[in-house]
Automatic annotation (TrEMBL):
GO terms for molecular function: ATP binding; protein serine/threonine kinase activity. This is Protein kinase-like protein. InterPro entries: Kinase-like_dom_sf (IPR011009), Prot_kinase_dom (IPR000719). It comes from Arenicella xantha. Residues 28-335 form the Protein kinase domain.
Amino acid sequence: MKSNSRKELKGVTLNERFQVTDDRLGKYDYNGYFGDGKFGIDLKTGEEVFIKTIVFGTQRRRFEGETATQQIERETHAFNHERRLLEVCLKHNLKRIAKLVDVGEVSDDNGDLEYAYMAFEKAESNGHIKNVTEVQDSFGFRLQLMKDVCVGLSQLHQRSIAHQDIKPSNILKTKEKGEDRGKITDLGRASIEGDGIAHDLADWAGQGMYAAPDRLYRVQTSNWNLKRTSSDLYLFGSLMWQYLSESDIPLTREWMKRLTEPLKPGNFSDTYDQVLPHLVIVFEEIFSDAINDCESEIERELITIIKELTNPDPAQRGSKSFSTRIDRHSLHPFISRLDRLLKTHLAQSRTSNA
């Protein structure tokens, strides 16, 4: 992708409502699918907001071989796709998804489109490890984040939306009624069943360093749930792995470094069924080592949950307690288990502090 200069927006007021106050992203470390991210003030409410923009009439990032019109088409398609998904979230009051405050366009004095923007509620920070371990009772907050993300993903899945880019930078640390909570943000790589978007053609929509093994080995399937929903389960399990281990290293990098070179994605040319037994062994080794390092029953149960969520076989990924009423890829059983673990931790904390 070519990197070109972008127009400075600091100080600009969008539609007489949102004043851009800072082009620096601070703890957000935004890396969006289109445009740029920045902070601003909602002049209507006085609240701070986070703003995603497409800036027209200036040079921006362009893929190799892409014309200016193709770039505009790609960016506006991605913008409108995310807007539609966010409007679904607003309509159904999905509380664990970052709230869209406003969406709009700004034209110059000649009537030519100058900016398109989406304004979101601003959080305290994103969910990078350093941000979630600096709070009091860090372990309790990480448990809360795991539950909140699980609830948010479940809300999306119930609307046939797969996020496809769950990672620490796409989790928000919020403050609700004085308590630290979490929300999912950035639906720029999301997929909704029956409504195609360019990144749906890719083997994986987010960053490869987080992707599920079946995606990296380019397993082909027409089953939307098997390709999209099960990938979200893996990504969520990887997020839990990072939060539990307090590590910046995603689970994908953990199993990749244990594989021999001929078996790694890009080198292995046979079918996924043939590499799967090797992956199963590597995953068992990872979780066996992790279990041995656990200091509590809660940590051991979290490893069990992560193991179920990240099974290298996408058909086996998910809850072991599925039934005719509960789909294997449903997150409801995991919400219940995480809620129980969180309550256990809080009870233990109250007892130890008594």
